[in-house]
């Protein structure tokens, strides 16, 4: 990381590992992904004064259309997970205010049907398509600078999935 960015803070964020009854995990392909390589789990910023669980349910609803009554919170990550953006993205995302994200992750069990997932629930949409994948596939689907975090989250939640 460029030393000029080292003093920037991390953006507070929540991530959601949404699992179905078969133990597969929801991933969405980012709508701004032109190369088909940016699949990720729902995640997003925590608003000022917002608590973690409501933030997770809000992000889940905005990005997937899944209503809170269709999920059960199973676990919360023990610690925050940090990642740094590549230098070329720091000035482009979040108004250049952050060097990356500090994320708390929640594991949620999905009790709905696939038809309850609606990527058009929020405008603008976050994802262009979605699928269920095996947890071990997650690190290979995400952009490289987030892979370490995805490995940590899979390792932490593996026995609960």
The proportion of residues forming helix, as a percent range, comes to 10-25%
Name the CATH class: Alpha Beta
**Count of helical segments?**
4
Order of helices and strands: EEEEHEEHEEHH
Which architecture name does CATH use? Alpha-Beta Complex
Q: Indicate the structural class.
A: alpha+beta
Number of strands: 8
How do you describe this structure in short?
The chain is of the alpha+beta class and 161 residues long. The protein has helices at 52-64, 87-90, 138-141, 147-157, and strands at residues 10-19, 25-30, 39-40, 43-45, 71-76, 81-84, 100-110, 127-133. The protein is built from 4 helices and 8 strands.
Keywords summarizing the entry:
single chain; 161 residues; alpha+beta; Nucleoside Triphosphate Pyrophosphohydrolase; five-stranded mixed sheet; EC 3.6.1.-; NUDIX_hydrolase_CS; NUDIX_hydrolase-like_dom_sf; Nudix_hydrolase
Question: Topology, please?
Answer:
Layout: E1 10-19, E2 25-30, E3 39-40, E4 43-45, H1 52-64, E5 71-76, E6 81-84, H2 87-90, E7 100-110, E8 127-133, H3 138-141, H4 147-157
Parallel strand pairs: 1-7
Antiparallel strand pairs: 1-4, 2-3, 2-8, 5-7, 6-7
What does this structure look like?
The chain is α+β, with helices and mostly antiparallel strands. The chain has a single domain (9-160), classed as Nucleoside Triphosphate Pyrophosphohydrolase (Alpha-Beta Complex). The protein is 20% helix and 30% strand. The protein contains four helices and eight strands. β2 (25-30) and β3 form a beta hairpin. It starts with 9 loop residues before the first strand and ends with a helix. The mean pLDDT is 92.
């Amino acid at each position: 990381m460029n030393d000029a960015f080292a003093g920037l803070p991390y953006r507070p964020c929540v991530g959601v590992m949404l699992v179905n009854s078969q133990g597969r995990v929801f991933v969405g392909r980012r709508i701004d992904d032109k190369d088909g390589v940016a699949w990720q789990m729902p995640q997003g910023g925590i608003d000022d004064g917002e608590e973690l669980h409501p933030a997770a349910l809000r992000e889940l609803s905005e990005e997937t259309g899944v209503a809170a009554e269709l999920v059960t919170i199973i676990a919360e990550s023990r610690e925050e997970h940090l990642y740094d953006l590549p230098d070329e993205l720091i000035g482009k995302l979040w108004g250049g205010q952050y060097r990356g994200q500090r994320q708390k992750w929640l594991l949620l069990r999905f009790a709905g049907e696939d038809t309850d997932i609606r990527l058009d629930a929020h405008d603008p949409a976050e994802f262009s398509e979605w699928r269920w994948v095996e947890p071990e596939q997650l690190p290979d689907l995400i952009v490289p600078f987030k892979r370490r975090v995805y490995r940590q989250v899979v390792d932490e939640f593996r026995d609960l999935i």
